[in-house]
Amino acid sequence: MGYLHSIGEYVIMLKGVFGRMTKRTVLKELIFKEIDQLIIGSLGIVAFLSFFIGGVVALQTALNLNNPLIPKTLIAFAARQSIILEFSPTFISIIMAGKVGSFITSSIGSMRVTEQIDALEVMGVNSLNYLIFPKIIAMLTYPFVIAISMFLGIFGAYASAVLGGFVGSDTFISGLQEDFQGYQLFYAFFKTFLFAIILATVPSYHGYYMTGGSLEVGKASTTSFVWTSVVIIITNYIVTQLLLG
């Protein structure tokens, strides 16, 4: 029953988010602030992880190609498929659940502890719309982060494979183009869009409805990361089954 209660609260929260709207001028300022904190502030770690893990994927593939009958183009092909289909959309989203999700939960939770949310309600402000709606809109730019991750991941794979002497530049590029389907990008960005909504709303739920003091804020952040990751993984499975199954 506890899970059903939480799901019900989550749905009610979403309804409240799109209820009475905050003034447009205020929302505009809040949205740009959230984009700076949630999106731009995450580009560094996303770029670092994407480049080096792309390189590792290519390196591991190259080191395991012992059969001379297997073409070297498989290095680029495997890197492209791994990065576009799973690594960038899913793995980066789980990393973001720790970075962005914990930040959202702790910031809203701190406002709950210090009664700032109660003050907003007393002033006649829809606190759900004021606090969570800008985060949802800001996270709609999240697919651009994943696009950068894909590019840097493939570039890292190229640098690792070509500079490491495992494959020539032309062969790597040929492998990238081999059996490429545009539908795979649609699949990747569609689930990225869903992950963006999850990253904005699930941590917000854990922060908004938390009770207790500063110690509970830390616990709520940890719980938020766990459940956001779980929801992302389940959503990933469902979307993959529906679109690729």
UniProtKB/TrEMBL annotation:
GO terms for molecular function: phospholipid transporter activity. Keywords: Membrane, Transmembrane, Transmembrane helix. InterPro entries: Permease_MalE (IPR030802). It holds the Pfam family MlaE. The chain crosses the membrane at residues 38-63, 83-106, 151-173, 185-205, 225-244. GO terms for cellular component: ATP-binding cassette (ABC) transporter complex. This is ABC transporter permease.
